[in-house]
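Dear Dr. H.,

I hope your travels went smoothly. While you were away I took the liberty of generating a structure for the chain from your last submission, since the lab meeting agenda had it listed for discussion. I wanted you to have the full record in hand beforehand rather than looking at slides cold. The sequence, exactly as received, is reproduced here:
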Amino acid sequence: MASSHWHGQVEVNVPFDGDVEYLINNEVVQIKQGHITLFWACTPHQLTRPGNCRQMAIFSLPMHLFLSWPLARDLINHVTHGMVVKSLATQQLSTFEVLRWQQETSSRMSKFVSWRSMRSA
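The corresponding predicted structure, in token form, is as follows:
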């Protein structure tokens, strides 16, 4: 990605076959293969190093939808105060599930679920 961008949703990223590096609010954030990472994307962010990752799921969740879910208050506070939240464990989500969700929601929610096949830089 050539420059930082921002939008009003909560962004969820899952690199499936390699680590990636983002610049989020001028801070370098490494996302390890298989880990789920989320942040409020109103913060300027940019994929700076895709590394060897060629498959990555990116979800854009509208803030009103995120806030409507029964989530832990601490998680909501962390996200709404600009923290980048990372899963402790890997393999919480599979490529099969992401592709299935994308197919199931393609007609009504395609703007929220994105499957990226990234090319080597």
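Two observations you may find useful: Strands lie at 10-15, 20-24, 27-31, 37-40, 45-49, 55-61, 85-86, 113-117. The chain has one domain: 10-117.

With kind regards,
E. W.
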